[in-house]
Amino acid sequence: MSEVAPLISDLATILIIAGIITVIFKWLGQPVIVGYIVAGIMAGPSISLFPTVSDQANIKIWADIGVIFLLFALGLEFSFKKIVKVGGSAIIAACTIIFCMILLGIGVGMSFGWHRMDSLFLGGMIAMSSTTIIYKAFDDLGLRKKQFTGLVLSILILEDILAIVLMVMLSTMAVSHNFEGTEMLESIGKLLFFLILWFVVGIYLIPEFLKRCRKLMGEETLLIVSLALCFGMVVMAANTGFSAAFGAFIMGSILAETIEAESIDRLVKPVKDLFGAIFFVSVGMMVDPAMIVEYAIPIIVITLAVILGQAIFGTFGVILSGKPLKTAMQCGFSLTQIGEFAFIIASLGVSLHVTSDFLYPIVVAVSVITTFLTPYMIRLAEPASTFVDAHLPESWRKFLMRYSSGSQTALNHENLWKKLLIAMVRITVVYSIVSISIIALSFRFVVPFFKENLPHFWASLLGAVFVILCIAPFLRAIMVKKNHSVEFVTLWHDSRTNRAPLVSTIVIRIMIAALFVIFVISGLFKASIGLIIGVAVLVVLLMVWSRRLKKQSILIERRFFQNLRSRDVRAEYLGEKKPEYAGRLLSHDLHLADMEIPGESSWAGKTLLELNLGKKFGVHVASILRGKRRINIPGGSVRLFPMDKIQVIGTDEQLSVFNEAMQNGAKIDWDVYEKSEMALRQFIIDADSVFLGKTIRESGIRDKYHCMIAGIENEDGALMVPDVNVPLVEGDVVWVVGEKEDVYQLIDQKSEKVQVG
């Protein structure tokens, strides 16, 4: 009899225990993550009541794969566009919370006399709230529609990306043991460089690849390709000095912008759940109950630090962003827990061998306690805000009200100069990073290839031409982009004093582009600096004047933004999301509403011209969604059909009147319904029947009486599907279906002597 491999038996142990425990936790209404951790404690070496995992090294590998899948799935739910949309309030609040919580964690660790690295990692662990637990708590409490929950979810989005940054920083400090500012800035700069590079290149290439291969991809192939991209990015991130989790998150966030994102998320979810379960179980396996008892006081202190720190600093951060006291306290009290990122950061510390053994079980215990208390803290927010507001000095209350209204005004104020400069800086930074990457790869691979196969001068010349041609569209965008924008033109015509600064922005960007060309030429040729500068200026001017290059630059940028917006465009097309212009209508007292034509509507089958909705109600039909077909700006000849989804533009009053009229046109006439009731009856073909010897087609049962012969029962009792060309014979039992009145008219005919069976 063959023996089972230790890995398989260990997995069996883990999954059996996890399955039993999580079912119990589900029954108790507790988070599944906590159940996995408890299962891990039971499967670990500390408790002998259950079978113990024999080879923890193999389980550690599976747990690492679990982290990759967790971050990949988190990236699929994440979107870089969300960062832009979260607004200033979430940015201010998230940065305040994370900074203060890291300092608090370091302070608590130092007060216990722990090592500097233990304290630093503790700060990172308690700074991040749990997205999974908060989502579940909001759903359980029915709070997802509340105003403050939107801000909380925006803060969580920023915390996710900042957690990735924090993991990179902690990894750098753990490896180098260097806490100096230059080292930190270098790490952050490197992170931002690769983050922007991978995102830009990924958004340009990957959606295009998936689009071209869509017809060739079934669900199985899509899953394999997605996982291949994920693990490919993991390897690339690891080779550039980042963590595997960072690479998985980046690829997930890139795929989140594709049309296939929902399908990928659905296909990956079972795999993620399996490996994620193994990861959380492995977290529990590292927990020693005896150590928890030994470190009970630090656990209590850190738990209080998390609850009070998140509540206080969260409230303070949201108030600082310009929100009212009640909203701020609701947000702060919702963030009072730590979760998956705490475990991932703790695993990072263990894998790098820079944290003590006691830190992991402490963090797990704190996470379990804070997770359990989360719903109660959310419920406590409103009465706590009422209490604070009642006991707050009047001067403080007035100050907070003034600050809140003033901040909102400041945050919403638009400045043309600010918008223009931010756009120019963004374009310059992004395209510079792409250009630097192209130059680095070319000098690493392409130029050496030319030098191996061609004479030195011709190799250098060909290499320079190749590199400059590759970076030319991006350099042209740096120099020319935004020079004809609305902001630029408005500022130019608004005041003569604006023209000198505007011209200087163009000159600076031309100089940046020229520096790239100078770097390429000087790296391949030994010549005087004057000659190199002259050639560079000439090349740059040719880039600006080239119409072909202009067209290419526009096409590259257009494709990028098409790929970036493809998911949103699809959602708008299918009616799952309102178009962008819907928000702008609000400033004109107009509103875009989604409505559905009732199945029994009297409007069904009529054209828009016949209905004349614009004249009757003052509304306009912007689009019609029929199944998966969308009709934008429908003409007067377009007909409305039952269950059509229509997008209508009008004021609140107009839309209300329109909707009422549409619903009134769909009232059910119960008399009609009763008359249309169907019935099944039978009659016998005898010697006197008028149908004797006639075929079904000749009988007129369908045409004259509007009935249908469902079947014919012969003398043997067999029911057969009728043949329209076979004559009816004596003894046939004919079963007919039709509306009641028509059936009874057929059966009750006296003149035709139809005998009822």
Overview of this protein structure:
The N and C termini lie far apart (72 Å). This protein folds into four domains: 47-383, Na+/H+ antiporter like fold; 424-558, no CATH class; 581-667, Alpha-Beta Plaits, CATH 3.30.70.1450; 677-747, Alpha-Beta Plaits (2-Layer Sandwich). It is mainly alpha-helical and 757 residues long. 69% of the residues lie in helices and 6% in strands. The strands form two sheets. Strands 1-4-2-3 form a four-stranded antiparallel beta sheet. A four-stranded antiparallel beta sheet has the order 5-8-6-7. Helix 5 (87-111) runs antiparallel to helix 14. It contains 31 helices and eight strands. Residues 407-414 and 750-757 have low confidence and may be disordered. Strand 6 (708-713) and strand 7 form a beta hairpin.
Task: Note the topology.
Elements: H1 6-28, H2 32-43, H3 56-77, H4 80-85, H5 87-111, H6 116-127, H7 131-141, H8 147-176, H9 181-212, H10 219-239, H11 244-255, H12 261-285, H13 289-294, H14 296-320, H15 325-334, H16 340-351, H17 359-391, H18 394-412, H19 416-453, H20 456-480, H21 486-494, H22 499-524, H23 529-545, H24 547-573, H25 581-585, E1 591-596, H26 608-611, H27 613-617, E2 620-626, E3 629-632, E4 645-650, H28 652-664, H29 670-675, E5 678-684, H30 696-699, E6 708-713, E7 719-720, E8 733-739, H31 740-747
Helix pairs in contact: 1-2, 2-12, 3-11, 3-12, 5-6, 5-8, 5-14, 6-8, 6-16, 7-17, 8-9, 8-15, 8-16, 9-11, 9-19, 9-24, 10-11, 10-12, 14-15, 14-17, 15-17, 16-17, 19-20, 19-21, 20-22, 20-24, 22-23
Radius of gyration: 35 Å
**Average pLDDT:** 78
How large a portion of the residues is in β-strands, by DSSP E?
5-15%
Structural class: mainly alpha
Which strand order does the major sheet show?
A: 1-4-2-3
Q: Which spans have pLDDT < 50 for at least 5 consecutive residues?
A: 407-414, 750-757
What is the helix content? 55-70%
The CATH architecture of the largest domain is: Up-down Bundle
Distance N to C terminus: 72 Å
